[in-house]
Amino acid sequence: MCLTLPAKVLTIDNNRAIVESGGKELSVLIGISDSLMAGDYVLTTGDYLIKKIDQTEAEEIIELLRSYPPAERDSLNPDLKLALDRAAADRLDKNDLEFILSLSGEKNLQALYSEANITRKANIKDHICVHGIIEFSNYCKNDCLYCGLRKSNCEKSNYRMPDEEIIVAAAEAVNIKGYKILVLQSGDDDYFTKDKLASIISNIKKLAKCFIYISIGERPIAEYEAFKAAGANGVLYRFETSNPELYAKLRPGKKLSDRLEQLRQMKNMGYVISTGMIVGLPGQTIRDLANDIILMKELGTFMPSMGPLVPTRNTPLQGEQTVDFELMLKIIAAARLHSKTARIPVTTAMETLGGGEEARQKCFMAGANSIMFNLTPAKYRENYRIYDNKFYDAEKRYEKWALFKGELSYNMIEEELQIKL
């Protein structure tokens, strides 16, 4: 579900309330049974009042979701002003994106992030969506140069969660904690056959009403059809880079054209698409990154997935330079300006690179609006090492504000995603 800016109750009339948020008054339906009175602080999503909170919590949330002040347009760099005007008119092209990704100077960058965040608020309001991820196997048959799960990494401790444990972990996340969107992720692990995975997905759906993304790598398209029939709703399936030569170097024996064809077939099948690139790959250029942002939109990506390369032990890229975190913020802002209604997540790799929760907040201020919490059972979690020093948020304070139960929460998800759960 989503975390949103707090509102203050002004008046109550039967099942509706007038609330004030950000200087604006809104009329919302009351979707909770708690007693309410004028002066209470609440959280609202869409047309519904969904949760009562106290003033201290309201102040914490306001701090978490703070924004840069709007830029004074007349004082902007003329080229930046032109790029932002073109973004507002949905006319950003490759050259504009390259300019944005090459931008420097604190004043220019704050203006960029402010405009991206304003674009987010104008198109999808002040919502931060909270998803959960369960990493159920770290076996992988591939040898991608950047990934700690690669089959040649002999130092990792391999694991597979039993089917029943995956199902229980997912059902508890939904029915006990209130998650509505889950990602089931693994390496490319053929142990989890079509029938085994379809059964896991189907059994989760029987026990818990939720939206399921699957992130399981390359499979025959007929298998993805079976997973869709079993109840999978979306795929998290990165194209990694839009540069075919770079892709072939990083993923030995693989072709970018095959990856993109599968993504298009998944889209035609009715999957909600989450895809994107790795930032900081050796040989990658700013033009490549601009092409990546364009490709995400061309593929109809609902949730762009962009993460920095984190140099990892026992991989051929372990000695590569760490990505400048500012570049990640510029990519978030550029993606927001180019795809105004996209759900842009703060990936764990971004948090790892930028220093945890502080990095998360900077990403929100640059236009991101989604977060994914790791729900993998503790006994497995440390061994899912796609990269080193992976950030894990043990506190998960967003859970208490963004997650809630009841039929209303499902109605809101179905309306947003236009999918029947």
Q: Quote the average pLDDT.
A: 90
DSSP, total strands: 15
CATH class categorisation of the largest domain: Alpha Beta
CATH superfamily of the largest domain: Aldolase class I
CATH architecture of the largest domain: Alpha-Beta Barrel
Largest sheet: 8 strands, mixed
Please, what is the oligomeric state? single chain
**Helix vs. strand class:** alpha/beta
Indicate the percent of residues in helices.
40-55%
Beta fraction: 15-25%
Please tell me the total number of domains.
2
Radius of gyration: 21 Å
Rough shape? globular
In DSSP terms, counting alpha (H) and pi (I) runs of 4 or more, how many helices?
Answer: 16
Low-confidence stretches: none
Termini Cα gap: 14 Å
At the fold tier of CATH, the topology name of the largest domain is: TIM Barrel
